Amino acid sequence: MNSYDFDFFVIGGGSGGVRAARMAAGFGACVGIAEERYLGGTCVNVGCIPKKLFVYGSRMPHEHAVASGYGWSGGDLTLNWDTLIANKNTEIERLNGVYRRLLANSGCRIFDERAVLVDPTTVAVGKERYTAKHILVATGGWPYVPEIRGRELAITSNEAFFLPKLPERVVVVGGGYIAVEFAGIFNGFGAQVTQVYRGELFLRGFDTEIRQFLAAEMRHKGIELRFNDDVSALTKHGDSLRLTMKNGNAIDCDCVLFATGRRPHSDKLGLAECGVALGPDGAIKVDDLYRTNVPSIYAIGDVTNRVNLTPVALAEGMAVARRLFGSRDTVVDYDYIPTAIFSQPPIGTVGFNEEDARAKFGDIGVYVSSFTPLRYTVSREKERALMKLVVVRATDKVVGLHVCGEDAGEIIQGFAVALRAGATKQIFDSTIGIHPTTAEEFVTLRDAVR
């Protein structure tokens, strides 16, 4: 009988890896987990958590402006950037400690070092080697910066959370959700922001009407959006940076943030040497049970480059632990996964966008409402909302629900349950709304616009 140092060894201490390790230990497995940077991974350290804190912080001038319409008056707000960064760091350090205690209390052995595969059942951690019956790779993703001249002068979302001071002029390059979120963040903090994207409209894959609505709202807030444009070089000009565009134009600024995608963080882990199949982008190829082509090696989360969301990685980690050690063959259902973009205003979405629904189901009904929420009706600060339902006419089933407006993420979570349960438009129509709220629009939409 084979004897191993561990039943389960996890490479990567992000959300998915930590959840898998804790659950496996809870089922009685002997578990080791290695993390070379920071427990909690991207989400806790340079992703979801600090980004949302920055969004909250950047909304304060907006809230201050709204308050004047309600009779409040006072001096101008002053931002102390050092205080923001220090308080953010304190919260992240607290969360790092929480993750460490959760792992330790579960009985996991934690290695604060890089782990590399030696063979299908052996990992090298520092100068030591350990064997494991099952190995899980959960190393996440890493920001990608195109190979252009002067790329070393730019920052990515990783460095944006540690800037020594707030830049006055920022150019955000990219059209994904990270680019859109940081454009809103820096604009909210008072910087002059330009967002550059090589495509016709950002947020490819999301509902077109929602994308167009957000673009209009961002321009209304003073963000310059340059679509169908791209960067060819970045150079230093005195104390400023200059972006030379492919169309020959130039943009001068103080900070350039490339949010041009993320790649699976699979380099130099010994995967290829062990025969693990990788995609062209470095993604680890797995089946529906998160198994690689090497029977003892599994992978979950962003390193597989499938559905790159923290809650999805958590669900995948739980599925692996349950199957290996809990005698339960569970899989993750990827249908109707709710998503939020913390743009300003934010987006919440679940199910099919209008274009994909029409292609898949044919005859659909589209219900749309665009309005100014109540809180802005007495304010000089304006921000609109757009609500949208997509319904299959043959079955009356609601297959897409989208909102761009305040509290979009909070609104979409509850409605995601309804869509997963197969709610019809008739059920929406028979549901009593909460008045006055933005969310009630979804149960009062009566006439299809298309």
Task: Explain what you see.
This protein is an alpha/beta fold. The chain folds into three domains: 6-142 and 263-325, FAD/NAD(P)-binding domain (3-Layer(bba) Sandwich); 151-260, FAD/NAD(P)-binding domain, CATH 3.50.50.60; 339-443, Enolase-like, domain 1 (2-Layer Sandwich), CATH 3.30.390. It is built from twelve helices and 21 strands. Strands 1, 2, 3, 4, 5, 6 and 16 form a seven-stranded mixed β-sheet that branches. Strands 17-18-21-20-19 form a five-stranded antiparallel β-sheet, sandwiched between helices. A hairpin with a 5-residue loop joins β17 (339-341) and β18.
Question: Key features?
Answer:
single chain, 450 residues, alpha/beta, FAD/NAD(P)-binding domain, Enolase-like, domain 1, 3 domains, seven-stranded mixed sheet, five-stranded antiparallel sheet, 21 strands, globular
Q: Helix share of residues?
A: 25-40%
Which geometry do the CA atoms define? globular
Low-confidence stretches: none
What's the structural domain tally? 3
Structural class assignment: alpha/beta
> Could you give a short account of the major beta sheet?
7 strands, mixed
Q: Count of helices?
A: 12
Protein topology:
Layout: E1 6-11, H1 15-26, E2 31-34, H2 41-46, H3 48-58, H4 60-68, H5 81-106, E3 109-111, E4 115-119, E5 122-125, E6 128-137, E7 141-143, H6 157-160, E8 169-173, H7 177-189, E9 192-196, H8 208-220, E10 224-226, E11 231-237, E12 240-245, E13 250-253, E14 255-258, E15 262-264, E16 297-299, H9 310-325, E17 339-341, E18 347-351, H10 354-361, E19 364-371, E20 385-392, E21 398-404, H11 408-420, H12 425-430
Parallel strand pairs: 1-2, 1-6, 2-3, 6-16, 8-9, 8-14, 9-10
Antiparallel strand pairs: 4-5, 5-6, 7-15, 11-12, 12-13, 17-18, 18-21, 19-20, 20-21
